[in-house]
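Good morning,

Attaching, inline, the backbone tokens for the sequence recovery test we're adding to the shared suite. The designed sequence is right after.
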């Protein structure tokens, strides 16, 4: 097995990436904790699991924020849709319980 010499610059970048990944996991966990509570509230209040109007507003808002942050708005939309689809799946499951 080849031993690569440590590169302090690369190691520094990687530590930052590791910290950001950890923060993303915690942020997503918190987001899903809240949306789970929303799903339970909607189910007990007999509200529909999905809210397409709110979804469209959220996506438009995120695309604007992405553009301002120099993040690809297509990527930000795909990422948010992926999360929303998962949330709706949870809400449908809560509604069916």
């Amino acid at each position: 097995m080849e031993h690569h010499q440590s590169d302090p610059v690369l190691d520094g970048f990687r530590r930052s990436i590791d910290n950001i990944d950890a923060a993303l996991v915690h942020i997503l966990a918190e987001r899903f904790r809240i949306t789970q509570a929303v799903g339970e509230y909607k189910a007990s209040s007999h509200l529909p699991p999905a809210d397409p109007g709110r979804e469209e507003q959220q996506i438009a808002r995120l695309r604007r924020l992405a553009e301002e942050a120099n993040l690809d708005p297509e990527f930000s939309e795909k990422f948010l849709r992926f999360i929303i689809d998962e949330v709706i799946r949870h809400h449908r499951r809560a509604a069916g319980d």
